[in-house]
Amino acid sequence: MVACECKCEEPGKDELSKQLELIIDEYRGKSSGLIQVLTKAQELIGYLPKWALISIAKGLGVSLQEVYGVVTFYAFFSLIPRGRHKISVCAGTACYVKGTNMVIKTIREALGIKPGQTTPDSRYTLEIVRCIGACGLAPAMIIDGKDVHGRLEAEQIPEILEQYA
Amino acid sequence: MITLTIDNQKIAVEEGTTILQAAKKLGINIPTLCYLEKINEIGACRLCVVEVQGAKAFVPSCVAPVAEGMVVRTNTPAIVKARKLVLELILSDHPMECLTCVRNGNCELQTLAEQFGIKEIRFDGAKTEYPIDDSTPAIIRDPRKCVLCRRCISVCKEVQTVSVLTAQERGFDSVIAPAFNAKLADVECVQCGQCSLVCPTGAIQERDDTDKVWAALADPKKHVVVQTAPATRVQVGETLGMEPGSIVTGKMVAGLRRLGFDKVFDTDFTADLTIMEEGNELLQRIQTGGTLPMITSCSPGWIKFAEHFYPDLLAHLSTCKSPQQMFGPLAKTYYAEKEGIDPADVYCVSIMPCTAKKFECGRPEMDDSGYQDVDVVLTSRELGRMFKQANINLPGLPEEEYDAPLGISTGAGEIFGASGGVMEAALRTVYEVVTGKELPDINFKDCRGITGVKEATVQVGDLPVKIAITNGLGNARKVLDKIRAGEADYHFIEIMCCPGGCIGGGGSPIPTNTEIRLKRIDATYIEDERMVLRKSHDNPAVKVLYEEFLEKPLGHKSHELLHTHYTPRGLWQEEE
Ligand code: SF4
Ligand code: SF4
Ligand code: SF4
Ligand code: FES
């Protein structure tokens, strides 16, 4: 599912929204429950879409800005649907100099998504991150938070991606 | 009491005092950046660090409480170095645009850089690239100049309870903006400008409309009239280096003439008119069982707040337009007719202590004269800028009088600028209209001062009139929630959006703090006492206006030109 800008309803939103209200009920009017509710909401939906943040803000009696601030502060929360595999391309200084842009362009061409997006088959999510500490291997990317792939060249990238089903 | 030593001087202070406050008592000024007394005490910037004997690291003095026997040093070479480092890091991600910046010469960051003798920035960091948000008619945000002090967030959330700003993302990507990096025009921002008052830099500022006014003044076809809000005469002097609380009424009039305005009129005139309309509306509501309590409608930030957050209470708002918006249509009908000028050529400028007035004058319904009633609104800060550009030395000018007829006013119109002033002015008139007797004492002292919520009962003939007065939107909520819960038995409520009333409006000179607000309030009541006439119904020009044109308060013409309606607005960035 692509995080699109259009206003189409996501499948099953009504059902999810009902279940979300049940989660919120436990903390209704209590701003102290914000992080717990967000965590459970993300477990339920898989990520935190805008409609969910609005319901949570209303339910707990806090502003949307407060909810959004917390969501963007903790890396654990995601505003976009996540794929099975997370590709994190390093944009630290060393990588940047050696070709972060090339890496992103190649992935974009291979998968058809921009950073911050997920492929329609929910296989990959692409993001750009600050230095991952693999400067010796620049330009580098890290997949699923554990596999570092370094000294990347455009031709190799599709092969690497293929390994993640 | 707690005894401690700061820079070798002993002092005893109460428990819970911060090191910063204790040092201040000793006359030691520790530099600060993010700190804003009682509003933003979060220890974010670390410019205020001091050395505490025995502590492993420097402590931020604005949040660190004193402790018994503490030994503090505030300006060792190591501390100076640490503070310089903080500044250099901020400046490494700051556009060096002082020469073309609205805050040039009045910027806390610039002052600190000068004070610490920053000569070079040793770090060549990446620059933040968030775009400028100029989506609203009143407020412009430039995240590039933001130092992430969070004062704007605190003022918007804690003082105004509007809460449209938040810090989002982490580290270098941090930005202060509405959720989803939305534009201010698309959220509940009421355009009050309180954030622009507290921002230490040029990251939040008013939209500068001076070019439009210069262009109108240069156009020989245009008949350019100006109105000045009650609060401006106790503000504008500050923009040109005069002491807070300086009264510059006559000098401001002289200065405006020298800028080339064809007529210099006064919003105080339409403030008096507002009292005639609103006072009668109140009596009518009381006598005919209309919606009570009735709430004042002079403050456009408050109006927008009500439309977003209390749409269910809109029937409580007086239907009177604000004095600014009563002036516009009269200038383009009554005045134009009287003078034989084509209203299409009348260009109507207002000088306001307020950013929300810029939003108000562009509201689509504000065209009852057949034209946009008020063409452009300048804040006190912008007028100060025009005086500077024209090389007008305000303090040295003679005192001149406003033009007739729309420049004639009473003390009642003048006190609109301070919290409680509209209420006091209304009481002066309502009392005499109802009882037919002269007020023994026209000073309603219960209405005055900057207490957040003021309440009183005033005996008007047989009727005990229950009133409430609030300033700052957080305080308005307290009273509004009571109305919602059916627990309010007031007749009349004055609500002002900004702390202290208009004299503390978002378009005021910078700095504006509690101390300065109090000085401007004192000056306001001095002006009131200096006036020969102090009750709106005594205003001779208002009487003539009714005789010649409007006929009577709440009459047909009044409804057409001086009254308005409100628009319920959404919340939460929801799609309709
Ligand atoms: S915000 Fe201050 S330091 Fe920055 S450009 Fe403007 S005047 Fe200069
Ligand atoms: S103008 Fe007022 S409501 Fe809008 S962001 Fe600033 S403080 Fe908040
Ligand atoms: S916009 Fe101004 S007040 Fe707000 S955090 Fe940035 S520098 Fe501070
Ligand atoms: S002023 Fe104390 S941390 Fe900013």
What does this entry look like structurally?
The complex is a heterodimer of chains A (165) and B (576). By secondary structure, chain A is α+β, with helices and mostly antiparallel strands. Chain A folds into two domains: 13-73, no CATH class; 85-162, Glutaredoxin, CATH 3.40.30. Helix content of chain A is 43%, strand content 12%. Chain A is built from seven helices and five strands; from the N terminus they run ααααβααββββα. Chain A has a five-stranded mixed beta sheet with strand order 2-3-1-4-5, with helices on one face. In chain A, helix 1 packs antiparallel against helix 2, helix 1 (13-25) packs parallel to helix 3 and helix 3 crosses helix 4 (64-73). The longest helix of chain A has 13 residues, at 13-25. Chain A is elongated, with a radius of gyration of 18 Å. Chain A starts with 12 loop residues before the first helix and ends with a helix. Residues 1-9 of chain A have low confidence and may be disordered. Chain B is of the alpha/beta class and 576 residues long. Chain B has three domains: 2-75, Ubiquitin-like (UB roll) (Roll), CATH 3.10.20; 91-206, Alpha-Beta Plaits; 210-562, Rossmann fold, CATH 3.40.50.1780. Chain B is built from 19 helices and 17 strands. Chain B has helices at 19-25, 77-92, 108-115, 151-159, 194-198, 210-218, 236-239, 249-259, 267-288, 300-309, 323-339, 356-361, 380-389, 411-414, 421-435, 473-484, 514-530, 540-550, 556-562, and strands at residues 2-6, 9-13, 49-52, 59-60, 71-73, 139-141, 166-168, 175-177, 204-206, 223-228, 263-266, 294-295, 346-352, 376-379, 453-460, 463-471, 492-496. In chain B, the strands form five sheets. Chain B has a five-stranded mixed beta sheet, with helices on both faces. In chain B, strands 11-10-13-14 form a four-stranded parallel beta sheet, sandwiched between helices. In chain B, helix 9 packs across helix 11 (323-339) and helix 9 crosses helix 15. The relative contact order of chain B is 0.12. The mean pLDDT of chain B is 95. The structure holds iron/sulfur cluster (3 copies) and FE2/S2 (inorganic) cluster (FES). One iron/sulfur cluster is lined by residues 94, 97-98, 101, 103-104, 107, 109-110, 145, 201-202 of chain B. One iron/sulfur cluster binds at residues 139, 155-156, 160, 162, 164-165, 189-195 of chain B.
